[in-house]
UniProtKB/TrEMBL annotation:
Name of one Pfam family that matches: GGDEF
EC number: 2.7.7.65
Protein name: diguanylate cyclase
Reaction(s) catalysed by this chain's protein: 2 GTP = 3',3'-c-di-GMP + 2 diphosphate
One Gene Ontology cellular component annotation held by this UniProt entry: plasma membrane
GO terms under biological process: cell adhesion involved in single-species biofilm formation; negative regulation of bacterial-type flagellum-dependent cell motility
Domain GGDEF, first and last residues per copy: 231-368
Length: 369
């Protein structure tokens, strides 16, 4: 549809006082403004850009010197952000200046919770001049379902501009803006909640380290990356010894405590940016060590085994020591184009079972060719 001739509405006769315009002309200009603002409010994903287009619209199409949308903080005690259009020729308060709602006509709008019509700015004790041409001002609370988001501020060089019908349209515009801000905040809150949920879905609830899902994704990603750089990849499978007996004799809560301590000890062995420890299963952990060959991986495994033993986590039912010990399987390979990471996982798992068979509390290595 082509743009109606009404474009550039106000500027067709900028000097003409608002009330001297024909009543039908005024109404159609206001209706057109409202339609435009509604369209702007419905478009775009960026709140700042939408608010800017709305204030631009007000200044371009009406006898308005300054139009602004001033947003409040959560507690509604301060203005924290302003989007404005028009001509600010004098120094006025900006949200960046620590602007409490105790100041200015916009502050009064927040304090009283109702629209403020200032027919003569010279007589208003709260008016803060931003442009010496301004004669009248209208301020409307931007409120969505009882929650106050800010104030819509319109300043005109004409003293008779804010007729009842004009104010009604600005009230409707403030309601539109409130809906837009509400929607943008809901979207932002949802995005934050989604990010938190995603992080939680990748984390083990008991120990706080990565869970199996995160491990699987990291292994796949690393494999693909390391193929290109011809860099080795090592993996340690760490399994607590005689854990069933520990639970049975010392109780599950003590068992849980030991699992948390083991997770911290595994974390203590991580060095590289992409090193990762995850809880692989019940009392099993896996360390992903990119850039380490089998010899280096065995060294990390041995350091971990000794650190666990030094911790002296009480184990009243282990036949090999009065404290918790771990059996560790180490695997390493050079990721190759056609290869699969599962082979590495299997090798470390087999090595771990070999460590169990060898009497536990030891490290066994297996290279994957
Ligand atoms: N406290 C606690 N125990 C768990 C948890 N997850 C798994 N387990 C227990 O870990 C035990 C693992 O037992 P098994 O697989 O038989 O192995 P094990 O007793 O450690 O014997 P080896 O591995 O052969 O040394 C089971 O009794 C599980 O119930 C957990 O989150 N908390």
């Amino acid at each position: 549809m082509s743009q109606p001739a009404i474009d550039n509405l106000y500027n067709d006769a900028p000097g003409l006082p608002w009330v001297e315009r024909d009543a039908r002309d005024r109404r159609s200009r206001l209706t057109e403004l409202l339609a435009r603002v509604s369209r702007e409010a419905a478009e775009g994903e960026d709140l700042e850009a939408v608010l800017r287009r709305i204030v631009d619209c007000l200044v371009e199409r009406m006898p308005v010197a300054i139009a602004s949308i001033v947003l409040l903080n959560e507690a509604c005690t301060h203005f924290v952000h302003e989007v404005w259009a028009g001509e600010l020729t004098l120094n006025v308060l900006q949200p960046a200046d620590d602007w409490p709602v105790s100041k200015g006509a916009a502050g009064r709008c927040v304090r009283t919770g109702v629209a403020q019509l200032i027919a003569n700015v010279d007589l208003d004790p709260d008016y803060l001049a931003g442009n010496s041409e301004v004669r009248s001002e209208y301020l409307v609370p931007i409120r969505h379902r009882g929650r106050l988001h800010g104030v819509l501020n319109i300043e005109s060089p004409q003293s008779d501009f804010f007729t009842a019908e004009a104010c009604e349209v600005f009230d409707a515009i403030a309601a539109q803006v409130a809906g837009t801000i509400h929607l943008a905040r809901v979207v932002r809150e949802l995005e934050t909640a989604n990010r938190k949920l995603h992080a939680l879905s990748m984390q083990d609830g008991l120990t706080g380290i990565a869970n199996r899902r995160q491990f699987d994704a990291a292994l796949q990603q690393l494999w693909t990356r390391l193929v290109k750089g011809s860099v080795p990849l090592a993996l340690l499978m760490v399994d607590a010894d005689w854990f069933k007996a520990l639970n049975d004799t010392a109780g599950h809560l003590h068992g849980d405590e030991c699992l948390r301590a083991l997770a911290r000890l595994c974390e203590g062995q991580l060095r590289g940016e992409d090193d990762l420890v995850s809880r692989f299963g019940g009392e099993e952990f896996v360390l992903l060590l990119p850039g380490r060959d089998l010899e280096a991986a065995v060294a990390v495994g041995e350091a971990l085994r000794q650190a666990v033993a030094r911790q002296r986590l009480e184990h009243p039912a282990s036949p090999i020591a009065p404290y918790v010990t771990v059996s560790i399987g180490a695997g390493a390979t050079w990721p190759s184009e056609g290869g699969q990471p599962e082979g590495l996982l299997l090798a470390a798992d087999r090595a771990m079972y070999a460590a169990k068979a060898r009497g536990r509390n030891c490290v066994v290595a297996k290279f994957v060719g």
